[in-house]
Amino acid sequence: MSLSFMTLPKLLLTSVLKTQLKMFPIIDDNGNLQPHFIAIRDGISVNQTEVSNGFKNVMTARFTDAVFFYNNDLKLGLDSMKSKLNKVNFIDGMGNMEEKTNRTINLTKNLAKKLGFTDEEIKLAEESAKFAYADLTSSIVYEFPELQGYMGGVYASKENRPKEVAKALEEFYLPLTASSKLPESKIGALVSLAGKLDTLSANFKAGQVPSGSEDPFALRRQAMGLVRIILANKWQLTIKDLVELSSKDLPENANNRLVELNDFLWQRLQNILEEKQIAQDAIYAVKNYEVPFNVIVERALILQDNLKSEHLLSVGEIARRVVNILKKSPCQNANFSVELLKEPSEIALNKALENLPKNIGNFEENLKNIATLKEPLEIFFKEVMVNDKDEKIRNNRLALLVKLEDVLTRQTADLSKLQKRG
User: Fold this and answer.
1) Interstrand relation of 33-38 and 24-27 (parallel, antiparallel or unpaired)
2) Mean pLDDT in the chain?
3) DSSP assigned state of 108
4) Which of 106, 107, 179, 364 has its CA 20 to 30 A from that of 126?
5) Which residues does 118 contact at the CB level (< 8 Å), separation at least 6?
């Protein structure tokens, strides 16, 4: 291999060798590419010199083409590449890649502000988002689609753009699989998140939702990457935040199924919780579109550790009873009155509810406090007939159950989802 070819980017060299020529590149112990290659011939070992020269000639021709394309891209530059994105279609009804780029820039900026990025970080992130898709119009990426992102980073470095921008472009499409490495840089992670989120929102807005084994746009993989990026960076983002932010700039579409994106993202988080051996009922109990992803994971792990608590599981069983009662007998008047409480057990239950510590911010402590309701709850349901003949008394008891339902199914977790063990 001529040493002149060694000036090409490493992944471009290896892609030519492996993808086009089916040859093996040689890497030293430090991971550095060497000016040698291994090729395999089919047949008997005769005329080895001619075969070797033939391999070299084919390799030289391919690398000469790569040098030509690469130099042309460098002359063109990222700004010119970006200017061609208006001729590249994204998906039907969701505009072209220039419009997608503009949405990604806005989404990057809004996410950065929400996450408390500095002004300098926001500036770097916006510049990264501006050129995130530019290399799609490059000659090299046209020949080697698998180098998208990587080549953008190379071109940014060659143009002496900030190293943070070059790194972000290189990492833009990470992770490439559901479990492969994530973007390492903060800016790269943010812009990658914004790009994936716009892709997901746009597809759902256009009605292109994966079904069964069909997922032509790899939306499940992108959603899993999005969730993993958020968890790895411990960013305080909720499913509701993501869907609301990403829907602002999308064009209207008659096939709109954007509302389904909430549960689609939740399913990816659920997969992660299942990999952590969290019980299904505990996962359902912490399901919430308005709680940050990392907080949900923390809660699920804590709840899993508390599933042996008989008091908590008993309260969960009663919570299901409360939910079922209110489904069959909806409260007609939610105005609860302490004065209408007459039975000692309903007075005691209301007092226990009132005495629960409010908003202590510690999930495990909240679970323990709720577990103390076991005794007053059991006595209440043993001694009190909720559907009293007196309408005022009946509605007041139902209003008490509404208060109880809020504590047992919303304030901390939906304990009605917990199942008895043993």
Assistant:
1) antiparallel
2) 92
3) H
4) 179
5) none
